Amino acid sequence: MAGSKRFGRRYTHFQSSQAHFHDDSKHFHGAIVSDNSLDFTAIRGVQAGTAYYVIMVPLKVVPTLFKFDDESMPSELRAQRTLNRARVPEIASYITRNPTEYILSALCASVDGEIAFEPASAEGHLRGVGRLRISMSATILINDGQHRRAAIEEALRERPLIGDETISVVVFADRGLQRCQQMFADLNIHAVRPTRSIKLLYDHRNALAGLARHVVDSVPLFRDFTCMNSSSISNRSLKLFTLSSIHQATAEVVGKTRKGSIDDDDRSLAICFWTAVIDNMPDWKRVGTREVSSAELRRDYVHAHGVAMQAIAASGNRLLAEHREGWEGRLRGLRTIDWSRANRKLWDGRALVAGKVNRSRTNVVLVGNVISKALGVPLSAEARRIEDLYAPSNGYRIAS
Fold first, then answer.
1. N or C: which end of the chain has fewer CB within 10 A?
2. Residue 362, CA distances (Å) to 365, 372, 387, 389 in order
3. Which pTM does this prediction carry?
4. Euclidean distance between CA atoms 4 and 162, whole angstroms
5. What is the pLDDT of residues 45-67, one digit of tens each?
């Protein structure tokens, strides 16, 4: 085939892997070796008038069977993006840490060389099931899944026993560089990453995600007014909070990281803290009684935005550390804050940038400093540094 020349060093031939075969061997980890070809049990399908095949490949074969594009080649001569090696350890860790639960979506590959499909039956339902024969001199390229392939190779070094498990591979006949590049674009152009909230809603391994869901279920205002499937709230939404915001804020309150464990004390503290906060946020409670809409609160007040929730959590964490007893009473200081966006002297440059609420880390700290002062909690060294550097010079500033 002309493909190997056309793509330069892009491919690695099956022939380069023949050292893994023995002369008297008839099987290669699930594939039958015969007449200088690899034979896989396959299912045949048709898309856009072109045949494709689905095969099962043992994980221990994946690193040998599928190679990367030559990363030294210019992007226009490759059919894949350059491998982002920083992503590989995370995927590999996911596999090795969840050996009884991990799931990997199918790889997509193009074969440049002779391939032939022999159906199990000439008619009926079995005409789409049969044997896919791939020439040993053929070349192969991953169109989609190179990070999974690299992660599988890394995971096998730590857990070789998973090598006999399989991953599905969707195989297409190679129709040239332009077609391969178009396949990559088509496979990824409509891909939409799930929102952070929806990932937290469905992640049952993440202890902090579980804590956030528990808090939402246990606090009536959160239960009724939390958006569970989006990380942002539209202007007309009836919701006041997002699951992702509650997750991040609650993690701050209990002082736990993503990999930390959660116990009953953490759950109890989180529920007690947010219940006490709500008791001291009359406007939030007005949303709960339908006296005011969430949209009106977002329009007119800073505390209806994520920056305030994160800031309350950060100040709350420090409050709990400084006053383990009697902290609930100190939260009454939240009532003394003028949360109105019309109070430009207080919020411009602190929560508002060019008239819009800003949720950068610096803004969270600056809003948190106002809250800490209201709660009678001293600023941390880092909070003081940010206050001195970034608090608006012509607005409200917290004295040392």
1. C
2. 5, 15, 9, 10
3. 0.74
4. 32
5. 999 899 999 999 999 999 888 76
